[in-house]
Each structure stands twice: as C-alpha cells, then as structure tokens.
Amino acid sequence: MPRGEKSKYTAKQVRKADHIEAAYRKKGVPKKEAEARAWATVNKDDGGGKNPGGSGRGKTTGHPASKKGGRLGGEAAAERPAAARSASARKAAATRKRNAAKRAA
C-alpha cells in the first residue's frame, strides 16, 4: 500500500481526521502540517486503519491522544501554594461580579 493511502480507514476515522485538521487550521497551522498531525493523532488513537487489512482492525480504541491534555493540565496550579490559588479565585470572582454589574447597567 502506497504511503498516504487512506483506503484502510473507516468513514469515522476519516471524519475524525477532518475534524482534528480543521481545529489545527483554525489555530493557524499550515494545511499540510495540519493534515499530517491529524492522521498521526488518528493513528495514535486507533492503531491504524480499521478496515480489513488495516493494522488496527478488531482492536478497541483507547483514545490516548485525547487523554493527554487532561493529564498535563493543572500541574502549574497544583505547584502554587493554596493561599495564592485562593487569592486568584477571589480576584476572578470579583471580576465576574464587576462585569455582570456592567452588563446589567
């Protein structure tokens, strides 16, 4: 099978890649790079094409790529002292209250 051929991918995998590519394009990533990243993500998630002859056929999808972000998020906040996090929360609440008052007026 030639490199880049997508015949072994299911319609769902193609839709998934299109959606991921669109998100990268929205962030300003060039089309070719966005497409490459999208297919790399689909391959990481699914282990290749799911159609007969594809290396991922019959395997479950663990979605490792989509789990990565949640694991990485919050590390910086967790390292900050509780007092600093609390102060940030109070400041944010005050800002939301102030903005709500402006919108109501």
Highlighted features:
single chain; 105 residues; mainly alpha; 5 helices; 0% strand
Would you write up a description of this structure?
The chain has 105 residues and is mostly helical. It has one domain. Helices cover 66% and strands 0% of the residues. The chain has five helices and no strands. The chain has helices at residues 11-26, 31-46, 64-72, 75-79, 82-104. Helix 1 (11-26) crosses helix 2. The longest helix is centred in the C-terminal third of the chain and has 23 residues, at 82-104. The radius of gyration is 21 Å and the shape is elongated. The termini are far apart. The model has no long low-confidence stretch (mean pLDDT 88).
Oligomer classification: single chain
Helical run tally: 5
Global morphology: elongated
Helix content: 55-70%
Structural class by sheet pairing and helices: mainly alpha
Strand content: under 5%
Number of strands: 0
Q: Topology as H/E string?
A: HHHHH
End-to-end Cα distance: 65 Å
* Uncertain parts: none
Instruction: Report the average pLDDT across residues.
Output: 88
Number of separate structural domains: 1
Largest sheet: none
> Rg, please?
21 Å
